[in-house]
Amino acid sequence: MQITIFGTGYVGLVTGACLADVGHEVLCMDVDADKIARLEAGEIPIYEPGLEALVSHNVAEERLRFTTDPAAAVAFGTLQFIAVGTPPDEDGSADLQYVLAVARTIGEHMDGYRVIVDKSTVPVGTAGRVREAVRGALATRGSELDFDVCSNPEFLKEGAAIEDFTHGARIIVGTDSPRVEALMRECYAPYNRHHEKLMFMDVKSAELTKYAANAMLATKISFMNEIANLAERLGADVEEVRRGIGSDPRIGYHFIYPGCGYGGSCFPKDVQALARTAGEVAYRAELLEAVEAVNHRQKATLFAKLSQAFDGDLSGKTVALWGLAFKPNTDDMREAPSRVLMEALWAAGARVQAYDPEAMAECRRLYGERDDLALVEGREAAVTGADALVICTEWKAFRSVDFAWLRRTLTTPVVVDGRNLYDPQAARQAGLLYYAVGRGASL
Ligand code: UGA
């Protein structure tokens, strides 16, 4: 099957490489000529385990190609995936300008039937707007060519995107057209071999499914963070509570890890966008607002704990950070708790000495060179000469540490663990002033 993908960002590139890998012919289009040139040279603009090898393999096999030519892109695939960004507007709603620009491009260049597949996370009702944009561009040409628009939301996790694409729990397709259903079946047949994963539904339900899934997961996290904050004040251990409730299959163990708040490009943006969508239909989504508010507060707890440990005066202190990315196995720092912490530390006159296995270049790009930020190679270098340590990301390499060494190295042995990596008792016995999330010893 010939497939075109607009947008070579995270979703577009993973989708393109995975579809090419199962034998489809894929053409990825991007307006960014520099990015396309780099991709053609085998250079991947994002960090995602396995992606570089998958892209180079399929480029070598000539099943995966790149272009900046919109006419060639529209001419290529019967299926035209839109996987461009939908950044949040100032008010939290998704900005659809890039999605609608692609829709117009397709309308301007198509010469026969096309299925436009909305892959980007877009608010309910976007398929209708895409349809109007294509129709408008066709009308300008005096053309009435036939086309369909369907919704096919992605459920990829950064760091596990290839696995999620190839072994995802479900493939959602929103359409009311049997012709689209047949084409989407053909596209996803290689992933639908052992049991039926394809779920067809109406377009709006598919669009809402994507938001509902992310909002549900974000709700679980904020709920656990709320319980953790309570546990801290009540003298209970949230990790015990987590095990206790996770064992109930109706609750489950997934996504109930308390921490320093959820980040990334999806949860914060999608919870806000859904609340905003609710507002547009005169419904106040109070639960979603609370999920967002709890998360906001949770990100601030790292600084609050540290500040209390130093009696409210962090000026002149050097704070080591282990982890900058919003989660392990990515270099993504969008909405990362580490950023909220660093910015608060700088405002309080402290210095940051940070290490992250992948996100240091991204950190440099975001904050540039500054006197109060040192990006150092390795977790040892980060704590050397530091007064305190904060763990912001649960990279594997941080899971085990010699507490006695930490005790000797840190000037004041304060450790704020935003990811509950260590046994509080063992850490405290080793002489560390150890503060985790929801594990007693509230500050
Ligand atoms: C999320 C969803 O998990 C994907 O299913 C979805 O496709 C994707 O958004 C998207 O909409 O594109 P992602 O943002 O890559 O994926 O990251 P997650 O692994 O879900 O983690 C999100 C945040 O929640 C991280 O900051 C993580 O540290 C935090 N988290 C996760 C917790 O604090 N506790 C948990 O129990 C789980």
Write the layout of secondary structure elements.
Elements: E1 2-6, H1 10-21, E2 25-29, H2 33-40, H3 51-60, E3 64-67, H4 70-76, E4 79-82, H5 97-109, E5 114-118, H6 126-140, E6 147-151, H7 161-166, E7 171-174, H8 178-188, E8 198-201, H9 203-234, H10 238-246, H11 267-280, H12 286-309, E9 318-322, H13 337-347, E10 351-355, H14 360-367, E11 373-375, H15 379-383, E12 388-391, H16 403-409, E13 414-417, H17 424-429, E14 433-435
Parallel strand pairs: 1-2, 1-4, 2-3, 4-5, 5-6, 7-8, 9-10, 9-12, 10-11, 12-13, 13-14
The structure holds uridine-5'-diphosphate-glucuronic acid (UGA).
Brief characterization of the structure:
This protein has 443 residues and is an alpha/beta fold.
What does this structure look like?
With 443 residues, the protein is of the alpha/beta class. The chain folds into 2 domains: 2-201, NAD(P)-binding Rossmann-like Domain (Rossmann fold); 215-435, NAD(P)-binding Rossmann-like Domain (Rossmann fold, 3-Layer(aba) Sandwich), CATH 3.40.50. 45% of the residues lie in helices and 14% in strands. The chain contains 17 helices and 14 strands. A 6-stranded parallel beta sheet has the order 3-2-1-4-5-6, sandwiched between helices. A 6-stranded parallel beta sheet has the order 11-10-9-12-13-14. Helix 4 (70-76) packs across helix 5 (97-109), helix 11 packs antiparallel against helix 12 (286-309) and helix 12 crosses helix 13 (337-347). The N and C termini lie far apart (59 Å). The model has no long low-confidence stretch (mean pLDDT 96). The chain binds uridine-5'-diphosphate-glucuronic acid.
